[in-house]
Amino acid sequence: MNNITLLLQLAGIGHFGILIASVQVPAILDWKHELPKLNPFMRRLFWVYGIFIAFTIIGFGTLTLTHLEDLAAGGRMARGVAALIATFWAARLAVQLFVFDARPYLTNVWRKLGYHTLTAAFVFFTAVYGWAAFH
Questions:
Q1: Mean pLDDT across 15-30
Q2: Where do the DSSP E strands lie in 1-135?
Q3: How many CB atoms lie within 10 A of CB 7?
Q4: How far apart are CA 19 and CA 70, in angstroms?
Q5: 8 Å CB contact between 71 and 82
Q6: Coil, helix or strand at residue 135
Q7: Distance between CA atoms of 30 and 13, rounded to whole angstroms?
Q8: Residues 11 and 62 sit within 8 Å (Cβ to Cβ)
Q9: 30's torsion region: left (phi>0), alpha (psi -120 to 50) or beta?
Q10: C-alpha 14: how far from its chain's center?
Q11: pLDDT by residue (tens digit) across 79-127?
């Protein structure tokens, strides 16, 4: 197994780790009390967006793990898929760094550790899939 294959395998598995963290978001952000303040359409829209993002992450992880050798080999389609995934995570990293202000929610060492671990994962995904797309 070469370096890119191993890194892609770790990234594929990492997507499912992101989902585990995502399950905690409604509790940490107190959606039980915050979402009822929105009108019903906006409340449903929040949940629909969250579900679509979760399915996208599941898809990225599943595609990576089931087509590992193809992604590592770098055919045109594989490079396109890797570029798409790299762009998704680069955009998510930009949002993490420049749009969201999570400080009010980083109330203990575990939340701070989780936040910084997510940031590191976004950097890792962007780098690995970027490498797969352009190596």
A1: 92
A2: none
A3: 18
A4: 24
A5: yes
A6: coil
A7: 28
A8: no
A9: left
A10: 9
A11: 999 999 999 999 999 999 999 999 999 999 999 999 999 999 999 999 9
- Maximum distance among all Cα pairs of the chain, rounded to whole angstroms: 52
34: its two tokens: 């915050």
pTM for the model stands at 0.93
| Domain ranges for the chain | 3-134
Give the integer Cα–Cα distance in Å for 13 and 65. 7
Separation of alpha carbons 64 and 15, rounded Å:
9
Q: Looking at residue 108, what DSSP letter applies? A: S
Count the Cβ atoms, other than its own, within 10 Å of residue 73. 13
For 30, list phi and psi in degrees, rounded to 5.
Answer: 55, 50
Asked if 70 and 130 touch (Cβ cutoff 8 Å), the reply is no
What pLDDT was estimated at residue 92? 98
**pLDDT tens digit sequence for 30-67:** 999 999 999 999 999 999 999 999 999 999 999 999 99
CA distance to 31, 35, 36, 50, 55, per residue, from 41 (Å) = 15, 11, 11, 14, 21
* 3-state SS, one letter per residue, for 32-77: HHHHHHCCHHHHHHHHHHHHHHHHHHHHHHHHHHHCHHHHHHCCHH
What are the structure tokens assigned to 55, written together?
């399915």
